[in-house]
Design a protein that fits this description.
126 residues, mainly beta, 4-stranded antiparallel β-sheet
């Protein structure tokens, strides 16, 4: 949606799980949007999608949700999978750089301090 005019822009996120409670993140000259199945990077002026990373391609469950927002660490975009099982890092071009499996946040957004990611989990489900 255009924040000044209220005019909606079309989306091509059809078929994606609809429960995501994340906050979009400004990054370089664009906006990172983390949805329940995808992370997308959009041009700030046009809203045009520049790239997408489909982290749920292997297991898409429409009833799952995503709450933690992505965070930026240097040039990497850190995010989590739904249900607190994996954390991953994407390059500025949307390519997977690394992935960690273990207990990661299902609700809390990871915090960064001196390049280290600190995660809090409400309960251990892993």
């Amino acid at each position: 949606m255009n924040g000044c005019s209220g005019v909606e822009r079309p989306t091509d996120a059809e078929g994606e799980a609809r429960d995501a409670y994340t906050t979009p993140v400004l990054y370089n000259d664009g906006l990172i949007v983390s949805g329940a199945d995808l992370i997308t990077y959009h041009d700030l002026n046009s809203g045009k999608e520049r790239w997408r990373y489909d982290y749920a391609a292997e297991r898409r469950i429409k009833s799952w949700h995503l709450v933690p927002s992505p965070v930026i660490c240097d040039e990497l975009i850190l995010s989590t999978y739904s249900r607190g099982k994996k954390m991953f890092a994407l390059s500025s071009k949307g390519k997977l750089e690394w992935q960690y499996e273990g207990c990661v946040p299902d609700v809390c957004t990871p915090a960064l301090l001196n390049g280290n990611s600190t995660c809090s989990t409400a309960q251990k489900r892993c």
